[in-house]
Amino acid sequence: MNAPATTELPVVVIGAGPTGLAAAAHLTERGIEPLVLEAGAAAGAAVREWSHVRLFSTWAELTDPAAEKLLAPTGWTKPGAATYPSGGDWAEQYLQPLADVLGERVCFGTTVTGVSRAGRDRIVDADRETQPFVVHITHADGREERLFARAVIDASGTWTAPGPAGASGLAALGEKAAADRITYRVPDLSDPAVRARYAGKRTAVIGSGASAFTALAALADVAKDEPDTHAVWVVRRGLSGSTFGGGEADQLPARGALGLAAKAAVDNGYADAVTGFRTEAIQRADDGRLVLAGEDGRRLDPVDEVIVLTGLRPDLSFLSELRLALDERLQAPVELAPLIDPNQHSCGTVYPHGHRELSHPEPGVYLVGMKSYGRAPTFLAMTGYEQVRSVTAAIAGDLESADRVELSLPETGVCGGAGLFDDPAAGQAGGCCTPEPALVQIGVGASVAPVSEEAPTGGCCGS
Q1: DSSP labels for 342-364?
Q2: Which residues are registered as beta bridge partners of 162?
Q3: Whole-angstrom Cα distance, residue 225 to residue 229?
Q4: 303 and 232 Cβ atoms separated by less than 8 Å
Q5: Between 244 and 102, whose confidence is greater?
């Protein structure tokens, strides 16, 4: 079958999550037909897998303006702007209604298995840019199909590729064999069956981001009712003022509160912090429990369960026939990477960006949303919304709008990027605009700063 003229084709959007559906809304607003391909059975399939987790962004920051316009005629009303939804709330009260409005433009149970140029593999130059994109898909019933597109917006996220426990970026020795006692998600401890798995048990939590903070705080709550419940927080670096996030200096107060809750879990004796520990192997003890072995020869006391929250990675396998320019560290677009690279970006603040930073040598293909950040951890929903506003304007040929920055992002209040903590010289250099963070007091009885109810006016690099 010959491919139709490119201008007659839709823009394929991969993923019906927050960013993908926002992209479809912006395309619709500009009179460009979107076709959203979602592997899951419902809108926000990945979000639904952490439906029990409350976001640290308010509703005011979680809905896209073009999507709101599309929803308005249906009688949809935006939830209270100052309230914090759970993942389940976000999916049910916003993402699913948006997908319903888009109707047949959204295809569920559809997995993208490959994207290329029609009749041109990655090697071929001849007439490459004049050919439409060809997208291979597999339906839930196993049926295969190919589609053609004028452009491709990949908003498939990173949820399906969590990082391993091994500090080298590879699975620790024995990690796969111990899968029955390891999870890579924040457990829903409000579920009695899940709670029973961790209550009265000793659990290792590996990771140092918001997800790890959430897990530690949740386990601490269980420990208040189940005294034998205890967490071992395994951190690859040392502890400093930045370890627990920005606290009151974070312009998203709920995000700052997560770090303070994790600190309280340690201070109040519900968790022990093991620092500078790089997991090399996970071994099975005689009683079936797990022993974490470090690269330095240390072996931790046996634990009943392990929660691995070491970040997420982009799945690039189905894009292998496209010419992408990706940073060698983050697997993010090369122009975007310097803005978000934790080895360079010391303030934790992400600068607004658009189609130019997201473009590739293959014109017409864009990685947006969480996937655009590769392995960087600082993504916010409002960043994705601005990305697709710019990208869709560029696809429509409106470069004036595409180049215009229409977003101001909140600062984290954190100085010292995650990639800098292993560098002895980095600590001597101090932060970006504030003094070097002091060491954190760890131990029972240590004081915990109260959480501010309002966003502070300053921040790490704030005026």
Answers
A1: TTT-TT-PPPP--HHHH--SSTT
A2: 312
A3: 9
A4: yes
A5: 102
